[in-house]
Amino acid sequence: MSLSLADILAAARTIRDVAVRAPLVPSPYLSAFCGQDFLLKLENTQPIGAFKLRGAANAVMNLPTDVKGVTCCSTGNHGRGVAYAARARGLRAVVCMSSLVPKAKVDGIRALGAEVRITGRSQDEALAESQRLARDEGLAEISPFDDPLVIAGQGTIGLELMQDRPDLDTVLVPLSGGGLAAGVALAVKAIRPDATVIGISMDRGAAMHASIRAGHPVEVEEVASLADSLGGGIGSDNRLSFPLCRDLLDDVVLVTEEEIYRAMQTLFYEDRMVAEGACVVGIAALQAGKLPALRGPVATVITGRNMDMEVFRQIVSGEDVILGDVTLKGRPYAA
Ligand SMILES: *Cc1c(COP(=O)(O)O)cnc(C)c1O
């Protein structure tokens, strides 16, 4: 199976009336910090509060008319996208999630009328449940990242980036299962082959990073993270997002929980933005000096805003945050 810019252009037409064309805005603070134009693609402004609506809508709109309903596994935002797109088409949706998914995300999905199944403590267990539902109940399964229509949908972000700033030299993409990074890299490199696309993950449980290193999909232990949307494996039978990320990403950089905490404060105090930990990994890498030879203009994708607001309050107040069985030491923001 191969994917090209044509699939991304088709996706852009398909999702036009469901997903918004998120604005690309400069961050004066981060531009000054790195000495280049630094731009934020505000996917937190999507109607479900995250970019995942793009891929989910492209997949749901392409289903045959006689489909019985849809199912998926999710770390939260994909389920929300699938629930939203399914509701728009009047379809039943069942979203399978592990117990690591924060309550704010589970509630958001229920509010869209989807059925929710909480199974196990890992994304792999949630995946097994959605595969069982697909088999036993004849529902169409929509992978959060390893599906050509989902990748093409997420790729519309790369297309819009290049339309808005044809001179972009570097794109920093939060990386988990790799649907976003694969789609964005595909679009950006088709239009501007010399541009650099870097994937960024948290340093604990970074499945794509470990898989690229190993040369094949590997399993990692899933742990609680401020970047909860970046948790979960890439699937041992990954067909698309793994080879695309392996072949198209120029680099994969890892950031710590402390670096994510600080970047969330930066985005809030400097750009006044409420965003999830997963969104700020590019900013975290920049602030931590992990992106030395950065060529500009630079853009990063602010992927979503579906935070637990109590945790968000703790972070912007400089308080400690409990993450699973560890306590992340808080620190007041200092520019
Ligand atoms: C899913 C998600 C990501 C990562 O996308 P992948 O396609 O899984 O790599 C990043 N940020 C947010 C907010 C997400 O929901």
Automatic annotation (TrEMBL):
Pfam name, any one: PALP
Keyword Lyase included in the entry's annotation: yes
CDD domains recorded: Thr-dehyd
Signal peptide: none
UniProt cofactor(s): pyridoxal 5'-phosphate
InterPro entries: Ectoine_EutB (IPR014333), Ser/Thr_Dehydratase (IPR050147), TrpB-like_PALP (IPR001926), TrpB-like_PALP_sf (IPR036052)
Transmembrane segments: none
UniProt keyword annotations, A-Z: Lyase, Pyridoxal phosphate
Source superkingdom: Bacteria
Keyword Electron transport belongs to the record: no
Positions of the Tryptophan synthase beta chain-like PALP domain: 20-304
Protein name in the entry: Hydroxyectoine utilization dehydratase EutB
Gene name for this UniProt entry: eutB
